[in-house]
Backbone:
Protein backbone atom coordinates (compact mmCIF):
# COMPACT_ATOMS: atom_id res chain seq x y z
CA UNK A 1 0.00 0.00 0.00
CA UNK A 2 2.85 2.38 0.86
CA UNK A 3 4.52 1.72 -2.48
CA UNK A 4 1.26 2.38 -4.31
CA UNK A 5 0.84 5.67 -2.43
CA UNK A 6 4.39 6.73 -3.27
CA UNK A 7 3.85 6.00 -6.95
CA UNK A 8 0.59 7.94 -6.94
CA UNK A 9 2.21 10.88 -5.14
CA UNK A 10 5.08 10.94 -7.64
CA UNK A 11 2.72 10.83 -10.64
CA UNK A 12 0.60 13.72 -9.35
CA UNK A 13 3.65 15.84 -8.52
CA UNK A 14 5.11 15.17 -11.95
CA UNK A 15 1.78 16.06 -13.58
CA UNK A 16 1.67 19.31 -11.60
CA UNK A 17 5.22 20.25 -12.56
CA UNK A 18 4.52 19.45 -16.23
CA UNK A 19 1.49 21.76 -16.27
CA UNK A 20 3.44 24.54 -14.48
CA UNK A 21 6.42 24.29 -16.87
CA UNK A 22 4.13 24.25 -19.91
CA UNK A 23 2.28 27.30 -18.55
CA UNK A 24 5.54 29.16 -17.90
CA UNK A 25 6.71 28.43 -21.42
CA UNK A 26 3.37 29.51 -22.90
CA UNK A 27 3.42 32.78 -20.93
CA UNK A 28 5.80 34.34 -23.48
CA UNK A 29 3.08 33.88 -26.12
CA UNK A 30 0.34 35.42 -23.97
CA UNK A 31 -0.43 38.17 -26.50
CA UNK A 32 -1.19 35.68 -29.28
CA UNK A 33 -4.71 34.64 -30.25
CA UNK A 34 -5.94 31.80 -28.03
CA UNK A 35 -2.94 31.96 -25.67
CA UNK A 36 -4.84 33.14 -22.58
CA UNK A 37 -7.46 30.44 -23.02
CA UNK A 38 -4.78 27.78 -23.34
CA UNK A 39 -2.96 29.22 -20.33
CA UNK A 40 -6.16 28.98 -18.29
CA UNK A 41 -6.59 25.35 -19.36
CA UNK A 42 -3.04 24.44 -18.35
CA UNK A 43 -3.51 26.40 -15.14
CA UNK A 44 -6.59 24.31 -14.42
CA UNK A 45 -4.52 21.12 -14.91
CA UNK A 46 -1.89 22.48 -12.50
CA UNK A 47 -4.52 23.34 -9.85
CA UNK A 48 -6.23 19.97 -10.27
CA UNK A 49 -3.10 17.84 -9.96
CA UNK A 50 -1.45 20.14 -7.42
CA UNK A 51 -4.45 20.05 -5.10
CA UNK A 52 -4.58 16.25 -5.25
CA UNK A 53 -0.84 16.16 -4.51
CA UNK A 54 -1.39 18.20 -1.35
CA UNK A 55 -4.20 15.88 -0.25
CA UNK A 56 -1.84 12.91 -0.72
CA UNK A 57 1.07 14.48 1.21
CA UNK A 58 -0.48 16.53 4.02
CA UNK A 59 -1.28 15.21 7.47
CA UNK A 60 -3.52 18.19 8.28
CA UNK A 61 -7.22 17.50 8.03
CA UNK A 62 -7.96 21.18 7.39
CA UNK A 63 -5.38 21.47 4.59
CA UNK A 64 -6.51 18.19 3.05
CA UNK A 65 -10.17 19.26 3.17
CA UNK A 66 -9.43 22.67 1.61
CA UNK A 67 -7.22 21.11 -1.07
CA UNK A 68 -9.87 18.53 -1.93
CA UNK A 69 -12.39 21.31 -2.41
CA UNK A 70 -9.87 23.24 -4.56
CA UNK A 71 -9.65 20.30 -6.94
CA UNK A 72 -13.05 21.43 -8.23
CA UNK A 73 -11.52 24.76 -9.33
CA UNK A 74 -9.02 22.96 -11.55
CA UNK A 75 -11.65 20.57 -12.96
CA UNK A 76 -14.03 23.45 -13.69
CA UNK A 77 -11.30 25.47 -15.45
CA UNK A 78 -10.20 22.52 -17.57
CA UNK A 79 -13.73 21.73 -18.76
CA UNK A 80 -14.72 25.31 -19.53
CA UNK A 81 -11.43 26.47 -21.07
CA UNK A 82 -11.19 23.36 -23.22
CA UNK A 83 -14.60 24.15 -24.70
CA UNK A 84 -13.73 27.84 -25.26
CA UNK A 85 -10.36 27.02 -26.82
CA UNK A 86 -11.77 24.45 -29.23
CA UNK A 87 -14.50 26.90 -30.27
CA UNK A 88 -11.76 29.44 -31.07
CA UNK A 89 -9.56 26.90 -32.79
CA UNK A 90 -12.27 25.52 -35.08
CA UNK A 91 -13.63 28.91 -36.15
CA UNK A 92 -16.73 29.18 -33.98
CA UNK A 93 -15.84 32.46 -32.29
CA UNK A 94 -19.35 33.73 -33.04
CA UNK A 95 -20.56 31.47 -30.22
CA UNK A 96 -18.25 33.13 -27.69
CA UNK A 97 -20.58 35.99 -26.88
CA UNK A 98 -20.83 36.94 -23.19
CA UNK A 99 -24.28 35.42 -22.73
CA UNK A 100 -23.30 32.10 -24.29
CA UNK A 101 -20.02 31.88 -22.37
CA UNK A 102 -21.89 32.76 -19.19
CA UNK A 103 -24.38 29.96 -19.82
CA UNK A 104 -21.57 27.50 -20.53
CA UNK A 105 -19.85 28.52 -17.29
CA UNK A 106 -22.88 27.84 -15.06
CA UNK A 107 -22.08 24.13 -14.40
CA UNK A 108 -18.42 24.92 -13.64
CA UNK A 109 -19.27 27.80 -11.33
CA UNK A 110 -21.89 25.63 -9.58
CA UNK A 111 -19.31 22.89 -9.06
CA UNK A 112 -16.92 25.29 -7.29
CA UNK A 113 -19.68 26.82 -5.16
CA UNK A 114 -20.97 23.39 -4.13
CA UNK A 115 -17.43 22.21 -3.39
CA UNK A 116 -16.91 24.91 -0.77
CA UNK A 117 -20.48 25.04 0.63
CA UNK A 118 -21.73 21.47 0.03
CA UNK A 119 -25.42 22.34 0.51
CA UNK A 120 -27.49 19.34 1.44
CA UNK A 121 -24.41 17.12 1.05
CA UNK A 122 -24.93 17.30 -2.70
CA UNK A 123 -21.21 17.19 -3.53
CA UNK A 124 -19.85 15.15 -0.60
CA UNK A 125 -22.01 12.77 1.31
CA UNK A 126 -19.02 12.09 3.56
CA UNK A 127 -16.09 14.41 4.32
CA UNK A 128 -14.39 13.81 7.69
CA UNK A 129 -11.02 13.06 9.29
CA UNK A 130 -9.71 9.60 8.45
CA UNK A 131 -9.29 7.19 11.32
CA UNK A 132 -6.97 5.05 9.25
CA UNK A 133 -5.43 5.00 5.77
CA UNK A 134 -2.71 6.85 3.90
CA UNK A 135 -4.42 10.28 3.70
CA UNK A 136 -5.75 12.63 6.36
CA UNK A 137 -9.43 12.63 5.34
CA UNK A 138 -12.00 10.24 4.06
CA UNK A 139 -14.75 11.27 1.62
CA UNK A 140 -17.53 10.03 -0.61
CA UNK A 141 -18.98 11.92 -3.58
CA UNK A 142 -22.64 12.90 -3.79
CA UNK A 143 -25.10 13.17 -6.70
CA UNK A 144 -23.81 16.57 -7.84
CA UNK A 145 -20.48 14.98 -8.76
CA UNK A 146 -22.24 12.43 -10.94
CA UNK A 147 -24.14 15.20 -12.69
CA UNK A 148 -20.99 17.22 -13.28
CA UNK A 149 -19.12 14.19 -14.57
CA UNK A 150 -21.91 13.77 -17.12
CA UNK A 151 -21.50 17.41 -18.13
CA UNK A 152 -17.70 17.09 -18.30
CA UNK A 153 -17.87 13.98 -20.46
CA UNK A 154 -20.39 15.72 -22.72
CA UNK A 155 -18.01 18.69 -23.11
CA UNK A 156 -15.19 16.28 -23.89
CA UNK A 157 -17.32 14.51 -26.51
CA UNK A 158 -18.34 17.78 -28.16
CA UNK A 159 -14.81 19.20 -28.24
CA UNK A 160 -13.44 15.93 -29.58
CA UNK A 161 -16.08 15.91 -32.32
CA UNK A 162 -15.24 19.51 -33.28
CA UNK A 163 -11.52 18.76 -33.51
CA UNK A 164 -12.21 15.61 -35.52
CA UNK A 165 -14.41 17.62 -37.88
CA UNK A 166 -11.73 20.24 -38.30
CA UNK A 167 -9.16 17.49 -38.80
CA UNK A 168 -11.28 15.95 -41.54
CA UNK A 169 -11.80 19.14 -43.55
CA UNK A 170 -8.49 20.88 -42.87
CA UNK A 171 -5.57 20.89 -45.24
CA UNK A 172 -2.69 18.51 -44.79
CA UNK A 173 -0.51 21.31 -43.46
CA UNK A 174 -2.75 21.63 -40.35
CA UNK A 175 -3.48 17.99 -39.68
CA UNK A 176 -0.38 17.31 -37.61
CA UNK A 177 -1.28 20.21 -35.34
CA UNK A 178 -4.90 19.06 -35.06
CA UNK A 179 -3.87 15.50 -34.19
CA UNK A 180 -1.61 16.75 -31.38
CA UNK A 181 -4.39 18.94 -30.00
CA UNK A 182 -6.82 16.05 -30.20
CA UNK A 183 -4.48 13.94 -28.11
CA UNK A 184 -3.98 16.76 -25.61
CA UNK A 185 -7.73 17.26 -25.25
CA UNK A 186 -8.76 13.64 -24.66
CA UNK A 187 -5.74 12.28 -22.76
CA UNK A 188 -6.90 13.27 -19.21
CA UNK A 189 -10.42 11.99 -19.78
CA UNK A 190 -9.33 8.72 -21.33
CA UNK A 191 -7.12 8.20 -18.31
CA UNK A 192 -10.02 8.99 -15.96
CA UNK A 193 -12.30 6.55 -17.79
CA UNK A 194 -9.82 3.71 -17.25
CA UNK A 195 -9.79 4.51 -13.52
CA UNK A 196 -13.58 4.89 -13.28
CA UNK A 197 -14.01 1.48 -14.90
CA UNK A 198 -11.53 0.03 -12.40
CA UNK A 199 -9.22 -1.14 -15.18
CA UNK A 200 -6.01 -0.14 -13.37
CA UNK A 201 -4.99 -0.29 -9.68
CA UNK A 202 -4.03 3.40 -9.46
CA UNK A 203 -5.63 6.60 -10.75
CA UNK A 204 -3.94 7.36 -14.15
CA UNK A 205 -5.71 10.72 -14.52
CA UNK A 206 -2.51 12.68 -13.74
CA UNK A 207 -0.69 10.66 -16.39
CA UNK A 208 -3.28 11.98 -18.80
CA UNK A 209 -2.53 15.46 -17.44
CA UNK A 210 1.20 14.99 -18.06
CA UNK A 211 0.47 13.80 -21.59
CA UNK A 212 -1.86 16.73 -22.18
CA UNK A 213 0.69 19.32 -21.00
CA UNK A 214 3.44 17.81 -23.15
CA UNK A 215 1.22 17.67 -26.23
CA UNK A 216 0.05 21.27 -25.80
CA UNK A 217 3.70 22.34 -25.56
CA UNK A 218 4.53 20.35 -28.71
CA UNK A 219 1.63 22.04 -30.51
CA UNK A 220 2.98 25.47 -29.60
CA UNK A 221 6.66 24.74 -30.30
CA UNK A 222 6.63 22.24 -33.14
CA UNK A 223 3.49 23.33 -34.97
CA UNK A 224 3.57 27.04 -34.04
CA UNK A 225 0.02 26.82 -32.78
CA UNK A 226 -0.16 30.41 -31.56
CA UNK A 227 1.70 32.14 -34.39
CA UNK A 228 -1.71 32.40 -36.03
CA UNK A 229 -4.70 30.29 -35.17
CA UNK A 230 -5.29 27.73 -37.95
CA UNK A 231 -8.81 28.90 -38.62
CA UNK A 232 -7.49 32.43 -39.20
CA UNK A 233 -4.91 31.09 -41.65
CA UNK A 234 -7.61 28.98 -43.24
CA UNK A 235 -9.90 31.96 -43.73
CA UNK A 236 -7.14 34.16 -45.14
CA UNK A 237 -6.06 31.33 -47.42
CA UNK A 238 -9.59 30.78 -48.70
CA UNK A 239 -10.81 34.38 -48.97
CA UNK A 240 -7.76 36.10 -50.51
CA UNK A 241 -8.37 37.02 -54.14
CA UNK A 242 -4.86 36.04 -55.24
CA UNK A 243 -4.01 32.49 -56.29
CA UNK A 244 -1.80 30.90 -53.60
CA UNK A 245 0.32 27.78 -54.01
CA UNK A 246 2.40 26.10 -51.29
CA UNK A 247 5.24 24.03 -52.75
CA UNK A 248 7.70 21.81 -50.88
CA UNK A 249 11.45 21.66 -51.40
CA UNK A 250 11.05 18.94 -54.05
CA UNK A 251 8.75 21.22 -56.11
CA UNK A 252 5.61 19.26 -55.24
CA UNK A 253 2.37 21.19 -54.77
CA UNK A 254 1.18 20.57 -51.21
CA UNK A 255 -1.52 23.21 -50.76
CA UNK A 256 -3.67 25.50 -52.90
CA UNK A 257 -6.47 27.98 -52.25
CA UNK A 258 -9.78 28.20 -54.16
CA UNK A 259 -8.52 30.99 -56.43
CA UNK A 260 -5.55 28.79 -57.33
CA UNK A 261 -7.91 25.95 -58.24
CA UNK A 262 -9.88 28.28 -60.50
CA UNK A 263 -6.63 29.23 -62.20
CA UNK A 264 -5.82 25.55 -62.71
CA UNK A 265 -9.22 25.08 -64.33
CA UNK A 266 -8.30 27.75 -66.86
CA UNK A 267 -5.20 25.84 -67.97
CA UNK A 268 -7.25 22.69 -68.44
CA UNK A 269 -6.07 20.71 -65.42
CA UNK A 270 -8.91 18.25 -64.84
CA UNK A 271 -7.25 16.00 -62.27
CA UNK A 272 -9.21 15.28 -59.11
CA UNK A 273 -6.45 16.78 -56.98
CA UNK A 274 -3.22 18.45 -58.04
CA UNK A 275 -1.80 17.99 -54.53
CA UNK A 276 1.40 15.96 -54.62
CA UNK A 277 2.17 16.67 -58.26
CA UNK A 278 5.26 18.66 -59.35
CA UNK A 279 4.26 22.30 -59.71
CA UNK A 280 5.99 22.75 -63.12
CA UNK A 281 4.02 19.82 -64.55
CA UNK A 282 0.72 21.21 -63.22
CA UNK A 283 1.30 24.38 -65.28
CA UNK A 284 3.22 22.70 -68.10
CA UNK A 285 3.20 24.71 -71.31
CA UNK A 286 2.48 28.04 -69.59
CA UNK A 287 4.61 30.97 -68.44
CA UNK A 288 4.01 29.87 -64.84
CA UNK A 289 6.25 26.82 -65.21
CA UNK A 290 9.13 28.77 -66.79
CA UNK A 291 8.87 31.67 -64.35
CA UNK A 292 8.79 29.29 -61.37
CA UNK A 293 12.02 27.66 -62.50
CA UNK A 294 13.64 31.09 -62.86
CA UNK A 295 12.41 32.46 -59.53
CA UNK A 296 13.51 29.40 -57.52
CA UNK A 297 16.89 28.78 -59.12
CA UNK A 298 18.74 30.72 -56.44
CA UNK A 299 18.84 34.04 -58.26
CA UNK A 300 18.03 37.36 -56.67
CA UNK A 301 14.70 37.82 -58.43
CA UNK A 302 11.58 37.16 -56.38
CA UNK A 303 8.89 38.41 -58.78
CA UNK A 304 8.10 38.08 -62.46
CA UNK A 305 5.23 38.61 -64.87
CA UNK A 306 3.46 35.76 -66.62
CA UNK A 307 0.44 35.33 -68.86
CA UNK A 308 -2.30 32.73 -69.22
CA UNK A 309 -4.57 33.22 -72.20
CA UNK A 310 -5.20 36.96 -72.26
CA UNK A 311 -4.68 37.48 -68.53
CA UNK A 312 -1.54 38.90 -66.97
CA UNK A 313 -0.21 37.86 -63.56
CA UNK A 314 2.49 39.00 -61.18
CA UNK A 315 4.18 35.96 -59.63
CA UNK A 316 5.84 36.40 -56.24
CA UNK A 317 7.87 33.57 -54.74
CA UNK A 318 8.91 33.54 -51.07
CA UNK A 319 11.05 30.79 -49.50
CA UNK A 320 9.58 28.90 -46.52
CA UNK A 321 11.91 27.94 -43.66
CA UNK A 322 11.20 25.81 -40.61
CA UNK A 323 12.01 26.73 -37.00
CA UNK A 324 15.60 25.52 -37.55
CA UNK A 325 16.03 27.84 -40.52
CA UNK A 326 16.05 24.93 -42.92
CA UNK A 327 14.52 25.54 -46.34
CA UNK A 328 11.36 23.43 -46.65
CA UNK A 329 9.56 24.92 -49.65
CA UNK A 330 8.14 27.92 -51.44
CA UNK A 331 5.08 30.14 -51.23
CA UNK A 332 3.98 31.29 -54.70
CA UNK A 333 1.34 34.02 -55.04
CA UNK A 334 -0.16 34.83 -58.44
CA UNK A 335 -1.90 38.19 -58.57
CA UNK A 336 -4.06 39.06 -61.56
CA UNK A 337 -2.74 42.37 -62.92
CA UNK A 338 -4.59 42.29 -66.24
CA UNK A 339 -6.38 45.58 -65.59
CA UNK A 340 -3.16 47.23 -64.46
CA UNK A 341 -1.27 45.87 -67.47
CA UNK A 342 -3.96 47.14 -69.81
CA UNK A 343 -3.83 50.55 -68.16
CA UNK A 344 -0.06 50.57 -68.49
CA UNK A 345 -0.35 49.60 -72.14
CA UNK A 346 -2.86 52.36 -72.78
CA UNK A 347 -0.65 54.81 -70.94
CA UNK A 348 2.33 53.77 -73.05
CA UNK A 349 0.25 54.22 -76.19
CA UNK A 350 -0.89 57.64 -74.98
CA UNK A 351 2.68 58.64 -74.22
CA UNK A 352 3.77 57.38 -77.65
CA UNK A 353 1.01 59.43 -79.29
CA UNK A 354 1.98 62.48 -77.27
CA UNK A 355 5.57 62.06 -78.37
CA UNK A 356 4.40 61.58 -81.92
CA UNK A 357 2.25 64.72 -81.74
CA UNK A 358 5.18 66.62 -80.28
CA UNK A 359 7.33 65.50 -83.22
CA UNK A 360 4.64 66.59 -85.64
CA UNK A 361 4.38 70.02 -84.05
CA UNK A 362 8.14 70.46 -83.79
CA UNK A 363 9.01 69.13 -87.23
CA UNK A 364 6.21 68.41 -89.69
CA UNK A 365 4.20 71.54 -88.93
CA UNK A 366 7.27 73.70 -88.55
CA UNK A 367 8.45 73.07 -92.11
CA UNK A 368 5.34 74.38 -93.95
CA UNK A 369 5.02 77.13 -91.36
CA UNK A 370 8.60 78.22 -92.10
CA UNK A 371 7.93 78.08 -95.83
CA UNK A 372 4.78 80.19 -95.43
CA UNK A 373 6.62 82.74 -93.31
CA UNK A 374 9.41 82.97 -95.89
CA UNK A 375 7.02 83.59 -98.77
CA UNK A 376 5.09 86.09 -96.65
CA UNK A 377 8.31 88.07 -96.10
CA UNK A 378 9.07 87.95 -99.84
CA UNK A 379 5.53 89.06 -100.63
CA UNK A 380 5.88 92.05 -98.36
CA UNK A 381 9.02 93.15 -100.22
CA UNK A 382 7.61 93.10 -103.77
CA UNK A 383 4.53 94.28 -105.61
CA UNK A 384 4.25 91.09 -107.69
CA UNK A 385 3.19 88.66 -104.92
CA UNK A 386 0.53 86.43 -106.52
CA UNK A 387 2.91 83.47 -106.78
CA UNK A 388 4.04 83.91 -103.19
CA UNK A 389 0.47 83.81 -101.90
CA UNK A 390 -0.13 80.60 -103.85
CA UNK A 391 2.82 79.01 -102.05
CA UNK A 392 1.59 80.32 -98.73
CA UNK A 393 -1.83 78.78 -99.44
CA UNK A 394 -0.25 75.42 -100.28
CA UNK A 395 1.73 75.50 -97.03
CA UNK A 396 -1.45 76.21 -95.07
CA UNK A 397 -3.24 73.39 -96.85
CA UNK A 398 -0.41 71.02 -95.98
CA UNK A 399 -0.57 72.09 -92.33
CA UNK A 400 -4.33 71.53 -92.35
CA UNK A 401 -3.83 68.03 -93.81
CA UNK A 402 -1.24 67.19 -91.18
CA UNK A 403 -3.50 68.40 -88.37
CA UNK A 404 -6.46 66.41 -89.69
CA UNK A 405 -4.37 63.24 -89.99
CA UNK A 406 -2.93 63.65 -86.51
CA UNK A 407 -6.38 64.17 -85.00
CA UNK A 408 -7.70 61.17 -86.90
CA UNK A 409 -4.79 59.09 -85.65
CA UNK A 410 -5.59 60.11 -82.07
CA UNK A 411 -9.29 59.31 -82.40
CA UNK A 412 -8.75 55.92 -84.00
CA UNK A 413 -6.75 54.68 -81.00
CA UNK A 414 -9.85 54.00 -78.92
CA UNK A 415 -10.89 50.34 -78.82
CA UNK A 416 -14.01 49.26 -80.69
CA UNK A 417 -16.36 48.14 -77.92
CA UNK A 418 -19.63 47.71 -79.80
CA UNK A 419 -18.99 46.28 -83.29
CA UNK A 420 -21.95 45.57 -85.55
CA UNK A 421 -22.41 43.16 -88.45
CA UNK A 422 -21.48 44.81 -91.75
CA UNK A 423 -21.19 43.44 -95.29
CA UNK A 424 -17.56 43.78 -96.32
CA UNK A 425 -18.33 44.22 -100.04
CA UNK A 426 -20.85 46.97 -99.33
CA UNK A 427 -18.37 48.86 -97.10
CA UNK A 428 -15.69 48.45 -99.78
CA UNK A 429 -17.97 49.98 -102.41
CA UNK A 430 -18.84 52.86 -100.09
CA UNK A 431 -15.16 53.54 -99.37
CA UNK A 432 -14.34 53.41 -103.09
CA UNK A 433 -16.98 56.05 -103.80
CA UNK A 434 -15.36 58.32 -101.21
CA UNK A 435 -11.93 58.33 -102.88
CA UNK A 436 -10.73 60.10 -106.04
CA UNK A 437 -9.91 56.88 -107.90
CA UNK A 438 -9.03 58.31 -111.29
CA UNK A 439 -8.70 55.50 -113.80
CA UNK A 440 -8.09 52.78 -111.20
CA UNK A 441 -10.60 49.93 -110.84
CA UNK A 442 -11.95 47.91 -107.94
CA UNK A 443 -12.61 44.15 -107.82
CA UNK A 444 -14.38 42.65 -104.81
CA UNK A 445 -14.30 38.98 -103.86
CA UNK A 446 -15.59 39.29 -100.31
CA UNK A 447 -19.13 38.00 -99.92
CA UNK A 448 -18.89 37.90 -96.15
CA UNK A 449 -20.25 39.91 -93.26
CA UNK A 450 -18.02 40.77 -90.31
CA UNK A 451 -18.27 42.47 -86.94
CA UNK A 452 -16.78 45.97 -87.18
CA UNK A 453 -17.35 49.66 -86.66
CA UNK A 454 -18.85 50.69 -90.03
CA UNK A 455 -17.42 54.23 -90.04
CA UNK A 456 -13.92 53.24 -89.00
CA UNK A 457 -13.80 50.27 -91.36
CA UNK A 458 -14.82 52.61 -94.19
CA UNK A 459 -11.96 54.96 -93.26
CA UNK A 460 -9.53 52.03 -93.17
CA UNK A 461 -10.47 50.97 -96.71
CA UNK A 462 -10.44 54.58 -97.97
CA UNK A 463 -6.88 55.03 -96.72
CA UNK A 464 -5.78 51.76 -98.31
CA UNK A 465 -7.39 52.65 -101.64
CA UNK A 466 -5.85 56.12 -101.53
CA UNK A 467 -2.43 54.64 -100.67
CA UNK A 468 -2.54 52.27 -103.65
CA UNK A 469 -3.63 55.03 -106.04
CA UNK A 470 -1.00 57.50 -104.75
CA UNK A 471 1.91 55.06 -104.53
CA UNK A 472 0.96 52.00 -106.61
CA UNK A 473 2.13 53.48 -109.95
CA UNK A 474 4.58 56.07 -111.14
CA UNK A 475 1.66 58.30 -112.15
CA UNK A 476 -0.45 60.07 -109.55
CA UNK A 477 -3.82 58.90 -110.85
CA UNK A 478 -2.82 55.22 -111.00
CA UNK A 479 -3.69 54.46 -114.66
CA UNK A 480 -4.65 50.85 -115.25
CA UNK A 481 -4.29 50.00 -111.56
CA UNK A 482 -6.59 47.28 -110.24
CA UNK A 483 -7.33 47.09 -106.53
CA UNK A 484 -8.87 43.93 -105.11
CA UNK A 485 -10.64 43.25 -101.79
CA UNK A 486 -10.94 39.59 -100.79
CA UNK A 487 -11.16 37.15 -97.89
CA UNK A 488 -8.42 35.17 -96.17
CA UNK A 489 -9.27 31.58 -95.33
CA UNK A 490 -7.47 29.43 -92.76
CA UNK A 491 -5.51 26.85 -94.75
CA UNK A 492 -6.03 24.17 -92.08
CA UNK A 493 -9.83 24.04 -92.02
CA UNK A 494 -10.86 26.55 -94.66
CA UNK A 495 -12.59 28.85 -92.16
CA UNK A 496 -12.71 32.62 -92.55
CA UNK A 497 -9.79 34.36 -90.83
CA UNK A 498 -9.76 37.88 -92.25
CA UNK A 499 -9.57 39.98 -95.41
CA UNK A 500 -7.00 41.63 -97.64
CA UNK A 501 -6.63 44.65 -99.89
CA UNK A 502 -4.10 44.34 -102.73
CA UNK A 503 -3.16 45.98 -106.00
CA UNK A 504 -1.18 45.08 -109.11
CA UNK A 505 1.07 48.11 -108.92
CA UNK A 506 4.79 48.50 -108.27
CA UNK A 507 4.53 47.11 -104.71
CA UNK A 508 6.50 47.89 -101.59
CA UNK A 509 10.18 46.89 -101.32
CA UNK A 510 10.69 44.10 -98.74
CA UNK A 511 13.04 46.28 -96.71
CA UNK A 512 10.26 48.85 -96.16
CA UNK A 513 7.28 46.59 -95.40
CA UNK A 514 7.91 46.49 -91.65
CA UNK A 515 7.99 50.29 -91.46
CA UNK A 516 4.98 51.27 -93.57
CA UNK A 517 2.66 51.34 -90.54
CA UNK A 518 4.93 53.65 -88.55
CA UNK A 519 3.49 57.10 -87.93
CA UNK A 520 5.14 59.73 -90.09
CA UNK A 521 6.91 57.24 -92.37
CA UNK A 522 6.53 58.20 -96.04
CA UNK A 523 8.52 58.20 -99.26
CA UNK A 524 6.49 61.11 -100.64
CA UNK A 525 7.66 64.60 -99.81
CA UNK A 526 4.08 65.81 -100.02
CA UNK A 527 2.64 63.01 -97.84
CA UNK A 528 2.14 63.13 -94.10
CA UNK A 529 3.04 59.48 -93.49
CA UNK A 530 -0.03 58.93 -91.33
CA UNK A 531 -2.35 57.17 -93.79
CA UNK A 532 -1.18 53.59 -93.13
CA UNK A 533 -0.55 54.39 -89.46
CA UNK A 534 -4.26 55.25 -89.19
CA UNK A 535 -5.06 51.95 -90.92
CA UNK A 536 -2.99 50.04 -88.38
CA UNK A 537 -4.55 51.97 -85.50
CA UNK A 538 -8.09 51.12 -86.69
CA UNK A 539 -7.11 47.46 -87.12
CA UNK A 540 -5.68 47.31 -83.58
CA UNK A 541 -8.77 49.02 -82.16
CA UNK A 542 -10.83 46.15 -83.61
CA UNK A 543 -8.48 43.54 -82.15
CA UNK A 544 -7.17 42.55 -85.58
CA UNK A 545 -3.56 42.08 -86.68
CA UNK A 546 -2.33 43.91 -89.76
CA UNK A 547 0.53 43.04 -92.06
CA UNK A 548 2.12 44.04 -95.36
CA UNK A 549 3.33 41.66 -98.03
CA UNK A 550 3.45 41.22 -101.82
CA UNK A 551 0.47 40.37 -104.01
CA UNK A 552 0.58 37.61 -106.63
CA UNK A 553 1.06 40.25 -109.33
CA UNK A 554 3.94 41.90 -107.47
CA UNK A 555 1.94 44.77 -106.05
CA UNK A 556 1.23 45.74 -102.45
CA UNK A 557 -0.96 43.51 -100.29
CA UNK A 558 -2.30 44.39 -96.86
CA UNK A 559 -3.76 41.60 -94.71
CA UNK A 560 -5.99 41.80 -91.64
CA UNK A 561 -6.39 38.65 -89.55
CA UNK A 562 -8.33 37.72 -86.43
CA UNK A 563 -11.52 39.20 -87.88
CA UNK A 564 -14.79 37.77 -86.57
CA UNK A 565 -17.39 36.87 -89.18
CA UNK A 566 -21.11 36.90 -88.51
CA UNK A 567 -22.33 33.37 -87.59
CA UNK A 568 -23.79 31.44 -90.54
CA UNK A 569 -22.20 34.00 -92.84
CA UNK A 570 -19.20 32.70 -94.72
CA UNK A 571 -17.76 33.48 -98.16
CA UNK A 572 -20.34 32.50 -100.71
CA UNK A 573 -23.30 32.79 -98.35
CA UNK A 574 -25.06 35.34 -100.51
CA UNK A 575 -28.34 35.30 -98.61
CA UNK A 576 -26.76 36.38 -95.38
CA UNK A 577 -24.66 39.03 -97.08
CA UNK A 578 -27.71 40.40 -98.87
CA UNK A 579 -29.49 40.80 -95.56
CA UNK A 580 -26.54 42.70 -94.14
CA UNK A 581 -26.33 44.90 -97.23
CA UNK A 582 -30.01 45.73 -96.99
CA UNK A 583 -29.58 46.62 -93.33
CA UNK A 584 -26.57 48.80 -94.19
CA UNK A 585 -28.54 50.69 -96.85
CA UNK A 586 -31.41 51.29 -94.40
CA UNK A 587 -28.93 52.78 -91.94
Residues:
Amino acid sequence: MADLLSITQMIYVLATLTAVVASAFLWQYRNRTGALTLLSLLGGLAIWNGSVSIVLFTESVTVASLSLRTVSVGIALVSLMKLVFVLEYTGRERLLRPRIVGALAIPSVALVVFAYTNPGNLLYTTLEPATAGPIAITYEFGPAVVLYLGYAYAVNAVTTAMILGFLYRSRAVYRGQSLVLLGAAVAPWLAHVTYALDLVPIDPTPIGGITSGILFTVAVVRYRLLDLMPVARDRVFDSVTDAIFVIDDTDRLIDINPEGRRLLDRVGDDTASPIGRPFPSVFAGTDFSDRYETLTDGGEGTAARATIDSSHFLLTVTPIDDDRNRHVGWLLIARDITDRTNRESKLEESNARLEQFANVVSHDLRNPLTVARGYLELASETDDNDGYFDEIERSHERMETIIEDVLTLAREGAAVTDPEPVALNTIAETAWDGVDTGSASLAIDADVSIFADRTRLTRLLENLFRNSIDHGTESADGPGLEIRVGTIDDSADGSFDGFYVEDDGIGIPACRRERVFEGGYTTDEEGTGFGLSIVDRISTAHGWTSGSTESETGGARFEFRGVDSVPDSSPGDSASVADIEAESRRD
In short: The chain is about 55% helix and 15% strand. Residues 572-578 have pLDDT under 50 and may be disordered.
